[in-house]
Amino acid sequence: GQNIDQPTEMTATEGAIVQINCTYQTSGFNGLFWYQQHAGEAPTFLSYNVLDGLEEKGRFSSFLSRSKGYSYLLLKELQMKDSASYLCAVRGWLTGGGNKLTFGTGTQLKVEL
Amino acid sequence: GAVVSQHPSRVICKSGTSVKIECRSLDFQATTMFWYRQFPKQSLMLMATSNEGSKATYEQGVEKDKFLINHASLTLSTLTVTSAHPEDSSFYICSAGTGTGNTIYFGEGSWLTVV
Does A87 reach chain B within 8 Å, measured CB to CB? Predict the structure, then answer.
């Protein structure tokens, strides 16, 4: 099975940097995803890691350590619009290939002035 | 533009009735699609894996006779909530992927309210 943990809530200041951690224990691993979700909307893809290391994409970066079962999402130059829920999701193995994701509980980020 | 489309985006139904939600892949064929449910302020919970041409695979605790899934073609999966109850009111969302890598797409989601 899969067990994915994230902090429930975080608060940060506009213009600052925030790191959202995710730890996972899975029976199989085939990639880790980070999504942003605003209330009432579908998740929006942010980043994907399948190998160890840092992936950078503009203001967002994501890090993965497979041996530690650990990932983080780094948001720089925070903006008010970044206030949202951030979901960590792990893809397991599925016979014949596939894209089955197991989501963490999500971290509700509040950006303040 | 959207590559996975859901319909309807919002639906209200009476308790005891059934409601169908469609999920379509627009630019690719999907042998598997996934249905999630999300209650307010909670994360997405996988309900079932929809398999084209065969029976869906349900997650533990999800009633297969209540949540009927049909994946009759490579671009369409449907979720039918049968004998709906107010506690079935939730945000239902589907996903599909084109293969490996990060190519997993989500539909827009469907808000179901049972009154």
Answer: yes
**A65 token code pair:** 């350590």
The model's pLDDT over A71-105, given as tens digits with 9 standing for 90+, comes to 999 999 999 999 999 999 998 766 544 668 889 98
**Cα separation values, B28 from A24, A43, B8, B93, B108, Å:** 31, 20, 21, 18, 17
CA distance A8 to A81: 19
Q: Hey, is the C-beta of B28 within 8 angstroms of any chain A C-beta?
A: no
Instruction: Give B25→chain A minimum CA distance, Å.
Output: 14
Which residue's entry shows tokens 């998740």?
Answer: A43
**Mean pLDDT value across residues A9-29:** 94
Angle value at C-alpha B45, between B41 and B50, nearest 5 degrees: 145
Instruction: From residue A77, give the alpha-carbon distance in Å to each of A12, A85, B81.
Output: 11, 17, 43
Do you find a cis peptide bond into A7, omega within 30 degrees of 0?
Answer: no
